[in-house]
Amino acid sequence: MAAGSPDFLTPVLVFCGAAVVAVPMARRAGLSAVIGYLLAGAAMGPFGLRLVTEPATVSGVAELGVVLLLFIVGLELKISKLWTMRVDIFGLGSAQLFITAALVAGAIMLTGQRWEGALLIGLGLALSATSIALQMLEERGALQQSFGRRTFAILLFQDMAIVPILALVPLFGARPGGDVLIPTLLAFGALAIVIFSGRYLLNPLFRLLAQSGAREVMTAAALLVVLGAAFLMHAVGLSMALGAFLAGVLLAESSFRHELEADIEPFRGLLLGLFFMSVGMGIDFALLKQWWWALAIALPALFICKILVVGGLMAFSGSLKTDALKAGTLLAPVGEFAFVLIPLIAATGLASANATHFAMALAALSMVAGPFAVKLVDLYLKRRRVILPEADLAALADAQGTVLIVGFGRFGQLVTQVLLSRGCAVTVIDKNVEAVRNAARFGFKIFYGDGTRLDVLRAAGGGSARVIVLCVDNRQGALAMADLIRAEFPLVTLHARAYDRIHALELMNREVDVVMRETTLSALELGRETLLALGSDEETADATVKDVRARDHQRLLAQKEAGMMAGRDLLRTVPVPEPLSAPRSVAQPLNPEAAEALTGRT
Known about the structure:
Layout: H1 5-28, H2 33-44, H3 56-75, H4 79-84, H5 86-109, H6 115-126, H7 130-140, H8 146-160, H9 162-172, H10 178-200, H11 202-212, H12 215-235, H13 240-250, H14 257-281, H15 285-290, H16 292-316, H17 321-330, H18 338-348, H19 353-383, H20 393-396, E1 403-406, H21 410-421, E2 426-430, H22 433-441, E3 447-448, H23 454-459, E4 467-470, H24 475-488, E5 493-498, H25 501-508, E6 514-517, H26 520-533, H27 538-562, H28 592-598
Parallel strand pairs: 1-2, 1-4, 2-3, 4-5, 5-6
Helix pairs in contact: 1-2, 2-14, 3-13, 3-14, 5-6, 5-8, 5-16, 6-9, 6-18, 7-8, 8-17, 9-10, 9-18, 10-13, 11-12, 12-13, 16-17, 16-19, 17-19, 18-19, 26-27
């Protein structure tokens, strides 16, 4: 045992040491952790310092990092949410894959390759690096943003396309048709097993294990579920990551979801870093040196092609140009599946050895260059002066509503619905280009314009409107608009949305007629529903909420006159002895510590 320990510990120490050195250096340089892992792998691999001479022995284990990453992503997506993404998955995803593959295949055919091999290599290079894209989206907290969700939808379609792409290899290689049919049937059978197990077996299993009280057993069970689904998918020729993702989606509504995520997260981070290192180890510097001139042309051409295709499709389907550019750059690196598909193409003789070796080198180089490209695009977008479109003042001249609403976000939309339901003439302006575009898709007519500009307010009818309603979610912007409107249109009735109590007081000091904190009514309504759940009748609940709202308004007026600590006697801090059916305006005094904690937060 003692003699064997150093052999076991050496690679572990090498990997941990490389991560500890490379990742902080990459972070300090303002780069992604992915770049640090890739460069560390290239440095210690067989084509670098040769600290690790057999990358293949690492890559099998390292691929589990991608598997665990997809499982955690699946936990965040319920089936209902996945269904709402179906247009992006099958629309954007299929268009991106087929258009990119066709363009790349056409370029390959110009070198004299057969169309079958060119098409398969084109499909392999059209796929994107799931691990890199998701890791960078996660680092930026962009996975829940619009472009992040659409990027993920394309990646998900690519994973699902692996089965038919694999089926094309023996088909083009003139093998018997049974070689295609049987794997396809096995693939559907494996999917059915995963779905059935996820819906009917996993929750009872975790409930039973939770009763044992052994935390390590829950961790083992979580790994068993993820790795079991991945192994089953791999056994029938599907992507291991797809199996893990399905397992995550099926457990997304489970009461054990958060515990599973906490159990898996440490393994996911370490193994994903190991995966990126294994990719870096596979970079053959001798091959890069031999074909440097061709790769120097092919790599930018491939990136530009994929960025234009993805960006064009996303921009055409409603995304902002900046979001389309970011998504295209994230999807530009070639995916991990290329390292499985291209050797199969070479084995069937559908393409020459030089073509497949070159495609492998291009795929590996793209994975290294991808994070750098993303960083360059981030810097470009950050330094580029964003030129917003000018408001069309001529178009605004025709929009003379009795109510002018500034801001068409989640708050302004509901205000507009109330007014339109009573036939009020409403003019809406918003300086968010995407909000204007999305509103038009739903049939709303709103105008682009900045409410802090006097010429825009005048053109939109601010001088003739009976009421102006500020629904913007920008605290300072709302205050600036209130100052401008009170100075230029002193007779207009002015209503405003407030972020919190302090913001409400600032607006009241600017003589805004009606100020509504954005959480007030929803919080009161939730309190009412809770009283009903506890057994109160509706009359009592309504009276109690009315009393609390009245006291809160009195306290707000007191604070406007005498400062934040005024009106403390109006706060109720302990239950009143009387039954809820007789709510009173008498409140227990609030101790100074509690008052300080509440100041400005409600």
